[in-house]
Write a structure and sequence with these properties.
Helix content of chain B: over 70%
Distance between the termini of chain A: 53 Å
Largest sheet of chain A: none
Oligomer: heterodimer
Distance between the termini of chain B: 69 Å
Strand content of chain B: under 5%
Shape of chain B: flat
Number of helices of chain A: 12
Structural class of chain B: mainly alpha
Helix content of chain A: over 70%
Radius of gyration of chain A: 28 Å
Order of helices and strands of chain A: HHHHHHHHHHHH
């Protein structure tokens, strides 16, 4: 392609005619471009029909929703400010303790789940499947189960988050362990350290920053989860929220939602700072 | 030829040792300070969270026996009969699961379409006005920070019990989450095609349609599919507050202690979620070559 033929702008028809083979779309692409959206549309119409959604219901609901939103302004504490703040504190406590407990529980599980630290492949397989199963069940379902076991209250929420995140952490930690370099542990072994010494001095310094950063990330996301598990009775602000919705006090609902937004933003900000501090500390450790 | 390890003079050695000890002591102090703060937080949070370890141990046997009780009673002698009894409501649950998947589908589609439209207004490189961009970003933030179950609760009071509330709740949450991801994808595009269309006289819509959209469409579709996987999980939960899907039956089963029903429904959810994950993963991998063409 050293010499380009001159192209005259404005002679589009001639260009099209000359390169018809290049410019024409293949029939597969054409079928995909027409068939894809048609299939999506068909499935959408089918879903709407199957679920029995009618536009009348949508319209009436939207009008009703507008009324509810009108009820929301101005947001008001309804004189329950201390109660709401205490519930929010409960929510943060649930997220904090749940995440911490999950992290502590996950460490002993992640060692046998990682390829390079497991004593037996069978054990690794068993623990991986266990972690998958725990992870496959939503936090809210765990919360319901624990409400049945330890009764209503935030403790059930803590246990729910602890258990369901143990599954997630176990997987993430074991992946972090698998990504470490074997050299440092070999060094410990060569200078006469046992396997636990290898884990303490060869493995832990490598994975700790990764683990800490993941734990912080989950703490953020658990602050969000902890706001809803109260809906099934497992403590925290969700209980108040569900209660105010049930009693149609939508100005207080709006206040609680704003409270949740502020708390989540604050936690995001704090954990962002902490994470930056930890990542900044990493080169010093190495 | 004897090779000796050079031994530093004692004074220099002491200096180095002291320096090392200082560094270790500093790190140790830092670690203890972190542990101390954590301990204080744990105690405070424990008081707030009404942690009662004795209560837990008291009920621990209850927890293990709970999992024992939700297990179906299967015996080799009449296995088919036992399974039939365990899954006595198989077709009913299957229909509810189908509802659940369709709720997730509608919600993902609605959320992705809304996010796909607004992400072009929120992307720093394409946004027509910075004021509008700020508003759109705040809207997306709001939609993804409020949990979908909260939307579901509010929508159930507005739209009544049923799948519509669930679809809308999950759609709004997906809209917020996808909007952020889509914006980031769009902010990373090659600007040359955009400038090309713009310099040929294209309006904003033309620029987006022919300059930006072809570059990002495969990525957006891939994110939307990923969101679908998440939404299937979410839509199996929104039934807890009456917003349709299998959640309603699961809620009743757990609350009313229909033990074997709990395991039957959970197993069906887990299997469905795994199958859908596999299918969407396949599709996402098949879309990869398109990405290269686009």
């Amino acid at each position: 392609m050293s010499v380009r033929p001159a192209v005259f702008v404005g002679d589009a028809a001639a260009i099209l005619a000359r390169h018809q083979a290049l410019l024409a779309k293949s029939w597969q692409r054409r079928a995909g471009e027409i068939g894809g959206p048609l299939a999506l549309l068909g499935l959408t119409l089918f879903s709407i029909w199957w679920l029995g959604i009618s536009f009348g219901q949508l319209g009436a609901g939207l009008a009703h929703l507008a009324n509810l939103v009108a009820l929301m302004v101005p947001p008001s504490t309804g004189g329950h400010l201390p109660l709401f703040l205490k519930a929010m504190g409960e929510t943060l406590a649930i997220a904090f303790l749940g995440t911490l407990a999950a992290a502590i529980l996950a460490v002993p599980l992640s060692l046998p789940a990682a390829k390079n630290t497991t004593p037996s492949l069978l054990l690794r397989f068993a623990i991986r499947r266990l972690l998958d199963t725990i992870r496959g069940i939503d936090t809210l379902i765990w919360a319901l189960v624990f409400v049945g076991v330890v009764g209503l209250g935030p403790f059930a929420g803590i246990l729910a988050i602890a258990v369901s995140d143990t599954g997630a952490f176990g997987k993430l930690f074991s992946e972090a362990i698998e990504a470490t370099q074997a050299r440092e542990r070999e060094t410990i072994a060569a200078s006469g350290g046992g396997p636990w010494m290898g884990v303490r001095f060869g493995l832990l310094p490598q994975v700790l920053p990764v683990i800490a950063s993941q734990v912080l990330y989950y703490f953020e996301s658990n602050t969000r989860s902890a706001t809803i598990i109260g809906i099934v009775g497992a403590g925290g602000i969700g209980l108040q929220l569900a209660e105010q919705i049930r009693t149609y006090d939508f100005d207080q609902v709006a206040f609680i939602v704003l409270l949740i937004l502020v708390a989540v933003a604050a936690i995001d900000w704090i954990s962002g700072k902490l994470r930056a501090a930890m990542i900044g500390r990493r080169p010093e450790r190495a | 030829m004897a090779v000796g390890v050079p031994i530093l003079p004692q004074r220099r050695l002491d200096q180095l040792l002291a320096g090392y000890e200082r560094a270790v002591a500093r790190r140790r102090r830092l670690s203890f300070a972190v542990l101390g703060v954590m301990a204080i937080l744990v105690v405070a949070a424990g008081r707030y969270g009404e942690v009662d370890v004795a209560n837990l141990f008291h009920h621990l046997s209850g927890l293990t026996s709970y999992f024992g009780r939700i297990m179906p009673k299967l015996s080799a002698a009449h296995l088919t009969g036992d399974i039939a009894e365990w899954y006595w409501n198989f077709t009913g649950w299957l229909k509810l699961l189908f509802d659940t998947v369709l709720i997730a589908y509608l919600a993902t589609l609605a959320g992705a379409m809304g996010a796909g439209l607004l992400a072009f207004l929120a992307a720093a490189n394409l946004a027509p006005s910075s004021g509008l961009r700020w508003c759109v970003k705040r809207l997306l933030e709001f939609c993804r920070t409020v949990p979908d179950l909260v939307f579901a609760l509010i929508f159930v009071s507005a739209f009544g019990l049923g799948p519509l509330a669930g679809v809308l709740a999950i759609a709004i949450h997906s809209f917020g989450a996808l909007g952020k991801l889509f914006t980031e994808v769009i902010e990373n595009i090659d600007m040359k095609p955009v400038d090309g269309v713009r310099s040929a006289g294209g309006r904003f819509v033309d620029v987006m349609r022919f300059g930006a959209l072809p570059q990002v469409l495969p990525n957006l579709a891939s994110y939307a599919l990923l969101r679908f996987e998440i939404n299937v999980r979410a839509s199996s939960i929104v039934g807890f507050v009456g917003a349709g899907g299998i959640g309603q039956d699961l809620f009743v089963a757990i609350r009313k202690f229909y033990y074997t029903d709990v395991s039957a429904i959970l197993l069906m959810i887990i299997v469905t979620v795994s199958i859908l994950d596999l299918v969407t993963e396949r599709i996402r991998h098949r879309m990869a070559p398109v990405e290269r063409l686009g």
